[in-house]
Specification:
Layout: H1 2-14, E1 35-37, E2 43-45, H2 46-49
Antiparallel strand pairs: 1-2
């Protein structure tokens, strides 16, 4: 019962929140610098991933994970 109440409270609180129309970068814009850890715990940056032919990053949004 507490879980149901919590879900309803959060849903009600978020109901009126504005959603940005386009939160991502646009085609042709430069990728901002970043630092993220990979699955092995090693820090990766844009420069460390970029190769001699460039870099292609694909971000997929999934409901499965």
């Amino acid at each position: 019962m507490k879980m149901l109440f919590s879900v309803l409270a959060v849903t009600t609180a978020l109901w009126g929140q504005a959603v940005p129309k386009d939160p991502g970068i646009k085609a042709g814009e430069k990728m901002p610098a970043f630092q993220l850890r990979d699955q092995n715990g090693k820090t990766q940056t844009l420069e460390s991933l970029r190769g001699p032919k460039g870099l292609m990053l694909v971000f997929v949004r999934s409901a499965d994970w």
